[in-house]
């Protein structure tokens, strides 16, 4: 399952920042994120909403990797801290002790870089949904193994997994990596369900045997998924699984009793017992018995609606 918007509220907020002094980097950060469709972009724009909006050209956004664009003739890139630090050098004014503290607190770090170095860092935090722990516990009670697939850092993924009671997690994943992880499980013979809400999850949702989208997620996620949790509450997922299991069980019961009834009743109605004991079923009684069998099947099906 995805983390942001699935296990967490999906409404992250900026809890810390650093910008190179005497620069328009606040405005540049705001202007690039204003055009982005990433789930974190809204939180960044809310934090920097008082900054002036600059003209952006050659804008490009790659799901799971970040944003590249030009502002005033200069190239800038927004992406995760891990990705940009592997490609750019760090500014000498960057307070690394502060960044390390943010990482220890499992915050999500988003960085802005120019052609040479990282010039700004924002730390964002997203609150867990109040029902996530109970939802995961109920899934485990059903014998379902859970795993978090996220593009966030190892520290963030580990912290969230620990809080909700999930042992397995995969961090720093691109959308293609999520698909590859699901494919690997399928090759091993597992039936895989994927729960997500973002554009980045759509490929993984399409690959999974069962795909579930959150009702407050992106349109493409809901269009791709087989099922949508309208309330965006993960606690509804174990309820939906129990309902589906009960429905399948009821269908099998109805099929069994329908076949059993017909195998026994049709030969009797055809006069099978007449040569043996002279018993002949009245056609009116046979018709009433057939109607009664339909009533019993419908009544058994209605039982599902009264179970919680």
UniProtKB/TrEMBL annotation:
InterPro entries: ATPase_P-typ_cyto_dom_N (IPR023299), HAD-like_sf (IPR036412), HAD_sf (IPR023214), P_typ_ATPase (IPR001757), P_typ_ATPase_HD_dom (IPR044492). Pfam families: Hydrolase (PF00702). Keywords: Membrane, Translocase, Transmembrane, Transmembrane helix. It is found in: Membrane. Gene3D superfamilies: Calcium-transporting ATPase, cytoplasmic domain N, HAD superfamily/HAD-like. One of its GO terms (cellular component) is membrane. Its main location: membrane. One of its GO terms (biological process) is copper ion homeostasis. GO terms for molecular function: ATP binding; ATP hydrolysis activity; copper ion binding; P-type divalent copper transporter activity. The keyword Transmembrane applies. The chain crosses the membrane at residues 255-274, 280-302. NCBIfam families: ATPase_P-type (TIGR01494). This is Lead cadmium zinc and mercury transporting ATPase. It comes from gut metagenome.
């Amino acid at each position: 399952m995805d983390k942001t918007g699935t296990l967490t509220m999906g409404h992250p907020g900026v809890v810390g920042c650093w910008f190179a002094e005497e620069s328009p980097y606040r405005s540049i950060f705001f202007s690039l994120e204003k055009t982005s469709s990433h789930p974190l972009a809204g939180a960044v724009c809310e934090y920097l909403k008082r900054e002036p909006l600059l003209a952006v050209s050659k804008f490009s956004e790659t799901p799971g990797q970040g944003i590249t664009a030009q502002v005033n003739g200069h190239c800038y890139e927004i992406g995760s801290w891990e990705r940009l630090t592997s490609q750019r050098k760090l500014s000498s004014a960057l307070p690394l002790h502060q960044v390390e503290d943010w990482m220890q607190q499992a915050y999500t770090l988003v960085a802005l870089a120019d052609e040479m170095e990282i010039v700004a860092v924002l730390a964002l935090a997203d609150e867990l949904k109040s029902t996530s722990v109970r939802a995961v516990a109920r899934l485990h009670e059903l014998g379902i193994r859970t795993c978090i697939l996220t593009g966030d850092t190892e520290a963030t993924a580990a912290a969230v997994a620990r809080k909700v009671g999930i042992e397995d997690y995969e961090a720093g994943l691109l959308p293609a990596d999520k698909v590859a992880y699901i494919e690997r499980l399928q090759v091993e013979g597992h039936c895989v369900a994927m729960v997500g809400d973002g554009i980045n999850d759509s490929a993984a949702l399409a690959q999974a045997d069962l795909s579930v989208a959150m009702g407050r997620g992106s349109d493409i996620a809901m269009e791709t998924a087989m099922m949508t949790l309208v309330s965006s509450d993960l606690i509804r997922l174990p309820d939906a699984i129990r309902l589906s299991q009960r429905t399948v069980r009821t269908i099998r019961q109805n099929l069994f009793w329908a076949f059993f009834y017909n195998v026994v009743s049709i030969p009797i109605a055809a006069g099978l017992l007449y040569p043996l004991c002279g018993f002949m079923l009245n056609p009116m009684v046979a018709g009433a018995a057939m109607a009664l069998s339909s009533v019993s099947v419908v009544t058994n099906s209605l039982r599902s609606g009264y179970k919680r």
